[in-house]
Amino acid sequence: WEPMQDRRAEQSVQKYFKTLEGEIRKLSGKDWALTAIKTRESPAYQELLDRLESLQEFASLRVLYGIGRLLEVKSLSQSAKNLDQRDLANQIQSLCRSYRDRNQLNYIKALERLKKFLQKESFTTQPNQMENVIDFINRSIGCQLKADQGPRQWLQALEQYDLLFPANLPKDELQNTDIVDQVIAFVDEHYMSNIGIGQIAEHLKITPNYLSTLFHRKTGINFMAYLKKIRMLKAKELLADPNIQVHQVAQQVGYFSTRHFARLFAEHYGCLPSEYRDKYKTH
Predict the structure, then answer these.
(1) Which among 13, 60, 75, 220 has the fewest CB atoms less than 10 Å away?
(2) CB burial class (10 A; 0-12, 13-18, 19+) of residue 59?
(3) Quick one: angle between helices 258-269 and 223-239, nearest 10?
(4) Element (H, E) at 154
């Protein structure tokens, strides 16, 4: 808006979001919840894009901070730097997603990873965070975990929780969902290697074209775009460590050419890896 309209425009925007917050609270009930994450204003378009991307990264932290609430990015950004907290939030989401998708194998794997994580001596949480985790799990998969129990009881309950496949889901659709989940799990584990849709398709004993179609249908993007996205997210995490050089970051996310990696990173984030690291230091 024009500078002379600043105050009126600001009041209009504030009123709009105040109304939105009220609607979010009204729609959040016993069985499900809407969660909003709020940033400060973005005076420039590129800054808006950066903040939208940060919202994607911070979204999983609602697992720890509580759903059905309005959360401020500023409060989440500190936890985002704590790798243990981010890891816990992502693992809980992975567990619930596997259950929702009726993928028993991935559910079992996610539960094993969560069990190992909770047994770490260094693992700590802030007050009320585990209560928020329990609330998220209960609402996501319909479980009945109790906050006054400990992690051991929660894990036992989740291990015994019946993973029933819906009777009305066609067998071929269920199989296709499982195949795409296997591809995603493979990428998450091997993104640093020289992988492609062809070798994964060969391993799954289906044609690359068919696998590409299934993958795009479920995720909305093609395989190479997804692989690049995962590598770029991992690169951002590694760049937060000043002791790792840029060429080492490139190699650890699957690029042997530092120049090629820097070009892809700039295309994805709008700045070179070295520039991002400098920006990160100032925050």
Answers:
(1) 220
(2) middle
(3) 100
(4) helix 151-160
Bridge partners (DSSP) of residue 71 are 37
Q: Which two tokens stand for residue 133?
A: 């985790």
Phi then psi dihedrals of residue 143, to 5 deg: -80, 170
**Calpha distance 269→47 (Å, rounded):** 11
User: What is residue 124's three-state secondary structure?
Assistant: coil
- Number of Cβ within 10 Å of residue 119's Cβ equals 11
Q: Is residue 212 a contact partner of residue 220, using CB atoms and an 8 Å limit?
A: no
Name the amino acid, one letter, at 27.
Answer: L
Rounded alpha-carbon distances, angstroms, from residue 184 to 47, 75, 141, 191, 221 = 30, 30, 21, 10, 12
Q: Please tell me whether the overall predicted TM-score, pTM, comes out greater than 0.90 for this model.
A: no
Tokens 């100032």 — which residue?
282
Look-up of token digits 């009930």: 29
CA distance 149 to 280: 39
CA distance 47 to 259: 25
C-alpha of 66 from chain center: 16
Helices (H) and strands (E) in the chain, counts: 15, 2
Do 158 and 111 touch, CB atoms closer than 8 A?
A: yes
DSSP character for 243? T
Per-residue pLDDT of the chain (283 residues; tens, 9 = 90+): 677 777 888 888 889 988 988 888 787 776 677 888 888 777 788 888 888 887 887 888 888 888 888 888 887 877 777 778 888 888 898 888 888 776 766 777 788 888 888 877 666 667 688 888 888 888 888 788 887 888 888 888 887 664 443 444 444 444 555 788 888 888 888 899 888 888 888 877 788 888 888 888 888 889 999 999 999 999 988 998 888 999 999 999 999 899 999 999 999 888 999 998 887 665 5
